Amino acid sequence: MPVQLTTALRVVGTSLFALAVLGGILAAYVTGYQFIHTEKHYLSFGLYGAILGLHLLIQSLFAFLEHRRMRRAGRPLKLPAPSQRSVALCIAAYQEDPDYLRKCLRSAQRIAFPDLKVVMVVDGNRQEDAYMLDIFHEVLGGTEQAGFFVWRSNFHEAGEGETEASLQEGMDRVRDVVRTSTFSCIMQKWGGKREVMYTAFKALGDSVDYIQVCDSDTVLDPACTIEMLRVLEEDPQVGGVGGDVQPPGKGMAVEDDQVQAAQVRAAEVWSVHQCNNPREQ
User: Fold this and answer.
1) Would you tell me which of 73, 109, 153, 177 could form a disulfide with 147, CB atoms 3.0–4.6 Å apart?
2) Does the pLDDT at position 272 exceed 80?
């Protein structure tokens, strides 16, 4: 059966069911028919309550069936072989709260994806921005896999004292750090979020197959990369996938009220017939 027809039938069926329930509730309320009641009606159970109870039961049943269907649809996870698909997570940071940044980096460290590359670009290279590099070293540093570079410039604006030669040397250094390090942090001249993301994309170039992005106040679910990559790999018409971003307390325990909790149990997808991949940039 075509997908459009199935969807139309579900919409019609749901609408008719809703009308039937509303009609039954209205009729029960108007008639006031009661099955059981005590003297002076301190306690009673009537047609109105029976319909409401039945409605709640049916809703719970449908919710359970839909939840089970979604869980089954998520199995098995068809994860591409690591040698065939590579992913880089790019984190944009700007004057972030230290606690939020720590939680973001720790969640990135826990992502269940082999050889995931993590690139944090800090929008600012002044002394007051240095604490973000310190937090990077605290959470992800301390190994040969981590690299960093404090750049006086960015890809579109030269910093104070830069020459053409030193600017090119800085660009080469950024690319080298990002491509050779599993965890990298680039601090650069302030230029706004677009400039931060441009640096990450430009430095990565064609070295990875997919790029995942988030802000520095986002807590990532360990399965987020696998789930989003699964959607991209299963449907060639899908050009982009967004996570199910939820506030704290909605499905994920987070200590702070303002930290975003990014969960990818259900992915939102957009079909793109002509979409560039990183190799074409």
Assistant:
1) 177
2) no
